[in-house]
Design goal:
By secondary structure, the protein is an all-alpha fold. It has 3 helices and no strands.
């Protein structure tokens, strides 16, 4: 029988390969709007990471903290890129 850790590792590696293939196929003109849409997914990741951190064990709290940090970097960076993109479409008076 496969352990849950091995199944999780398998899903993670598969997600990395599928994500890389998808992102290399996206045209450059669609990349920034796609990144701004990914902010919602990172928000869901933050909720999951906070849930993981609340389990009470020290390793879960450390992994949860790292996940929250990584997701927040992604959210803030995505919003900054989106804001910069939207400023390019404003009229200059």
């Amino acid at each position: 029988m496969l352990s849950p850790l091995l199944i999780g590792l398998y899903v993670f590696v598969l997600a990395v390969f599928v994500g890389r293939e998808l992102l290399t196929k996206v045209p450059h003109t669609l990349h920034t709007p796609l990144m701004s849409g990914a902010n919602a997914i990172s928000g869901i990741t933050i909720v999951g990471a906070l849930t993981c951190a609340s389990f009470g064990s020290k390793p879960a709290a450390i992994i949860g903290m790292l996940a929250v940090t990584a997701a927040m970097i992604n959210v803030v960076g995505g919003y900054l890129v989106t804001d910069r993109m939207l400023k390019k479409f404003q009229r200059r008076d």
